[in-house]
Amino acid sequence: MKKALCYNKIMKYTLPILNALLILSLTSCGFSSTNTDANTNAKLLFASGFEDDVYIDPVLVEYSEDYDFIRGTDKTTGFSWPISILGASESALHRVDDDNNQALFSEIQTINGNKVLYNEERYREFNKSTQLTYEILNITEGKSDLYVRYRMKVDSNMLGTINKWRALFEYKTKDYKDPGEGGTGYRLIAFIYTDKDGTPSWHLQGDKDSRNPIWECDTLALTKECHNEYVPVIMDDWFTTEYYWHWSNGSDGYMVWKINGKIVGEHHGATTQNDNPIDFILFTQLYGNVTPKYQWIDDIEIWDDLPPK
Known about the structure:
By secondary structure, the chain is mainly beta. The protein folds into two domains: 1-32, no CATH class; 39-303, Jelly Rolls. It is built from two helices and 20 strands. The protein has helices at 3-11, 18-31, and strands spanning 44-48, 55-56, 67-68, 70-74, 79-81, 92-96, 104-111, 114-121, 131-136, 146-154, 165-173, 187-194, 200-209, 212-218, 226-227, 239-246, 254-259, 262-268, 278-288, 293-303. Strands 1, 7, 8, 10, 15, 16, 17, 18 and 20 form a nine-stranded antiparallel β-sheet that branches. An eight-stranded antiparallel β-sheet has the order 3-6-9-19-11-12-13-14, with no helix packed on it. A hairpin with a 2-residue loop joins β13 (200-209) and β14. α1 packs antiparallel against α2. The longest helix has 14 residues, at 18-31. The model is unreliable at 1-36 (pLDDT under 50).
């Protein structure tokens, strides 16, 4: 059953039972979680498949010329863009080192009757950090747990090439800085890597800065710090990615990343440093050392805890 038909059945019911019916609807539409420790009290904070009136605003916002704002209401879910979870504001697609709007491209496409977000990096500016990210910005409730789920597809241009990487998702806390700048923050980041043979792997890490990982998970190399399974990297086809973290400065912290329901990185321990709250989330990323590259995003969900099955 298509998403729109599934949700339309919900909308005719009264508000007191809407939330329960929405959870059932998400399950029947393919949004079900594979987590075993789901919380029946979890609250759905945001959901969208880019349907109905959702669009990328062509109007530039003064002092935010490098940002493209996704706007409109997804009537199939009832949620509106931009994403404003955790007290965030001014969330948008961020075009970094875009060479006067030539290196990067975004649009909402229709594929087999479903709308999706399409991102493209045509080339990288020389010696620049060209990237296209959807950033959840100005977070004010950064000491919160969060569960994120969406479907995505990435191209295979890095396949068979050695020592390549592309970032998919990350968050940074307050006071996270580049190496040598004395930061006391924390970054959680998910990658696809290729090794010396050109074999790709899923890679998850928490670090003090980009040169100093605190812990790492890689599906080609089991480590003591975290649990993961060997899950082949999926390219040129759709897959479901899930991230969940329990924000904590102590040993009770927890982070897990799943692809199509299988664990590719699981860490038990602190998910920040020095009690720093999350500052912003790079919710989707198109960034790495191979170009060109492409990705498609659909069926986003964000919950405040592990959702019900």
